[in-house]
């Protein structure tokens, strides 16, 4: 499963990419606002740091305007993926952008049938928001599993991008469900690295190493 960072914070992206495990980045208007910088500057920096797909979101509500915004974003770098919200006008725009060879990520997906429609329109990725479903008392993982199954049934090429991830269990369950990608906040990536037994084990090894006669000269 590919790991994307869900952030517009370039320092987090720099650290994640340096770890060697980050395959791409997703942003959205809320994350862009949080970054507090010009969106174009931030995205141009991110695409330099991360060679993988970088999602940048459109904000128009009419298909022709979404297409216009998508074309602008796509010109910024070859690894830009144009993020479009799931709505009828968005589907139209995705169809058009796809026909122009522009990659798309259909976002704000909350049902498997929405994902199927996005795939039919030609989306490169679909982003089901599992955390936001959990937030309202539903089981977001069911949505991920359903979409993965439906795409398998019909050999759909669109990739499932599990989004709105809140904690490491979401990542694990997305991988078990066969999601192609999980996009997560940097904090969740850091949580995935850590295990108390790993930390304890390192500590013990370091203490024991001091008992080895040539410990000070081996390295
Ligand atoms: C990613 O593409 C989404 O925009 C993001 O995962 C949404 O997450 P949130 O529900 O934590 O805002």
Automatic annotation (TrEMBL):
Pathway membership, UniProt: Carbohydrate degradation; pentose phosphate pathway; D-glyceraldehyde 3-phosphate and beta-D-fructose 6-phosphate from D-ribose 5-phosphate and D-xylulose 5-phosphate (non-oxidative stage): step 2/3
Protein localization: Cytoplasm
UniProt entry keywords in alphabetical sequence: Cytoplasm, Pentose shunt, Schiff base, Transferase
EC numbers: 2.2.1.2
Highest taxon of source: Bacteria
Pfam families associated with the record: TAL_FSA
Annotated CDD domains: Transaldolase_FSA
Catalytic reaction(s) noted: D-sedoheptulose 7-phosphate + D-glyceraldehyde 3-phosphate = D-erythrose 4-phosphate + beta-D-fructose 6-phosphate
Active site: 83
Classification via SUPFAM superfamilies: Aldolase
Family: Belongs to the transaldolase family. Type 3B subfamily.
Function: Transaldolase is important for the balance of metabolites in the pentose-phosphate pathway.
Name the UniProt record assigns to this protein: Probable transaldolase
Origin species: Herpetosiphon gulosus
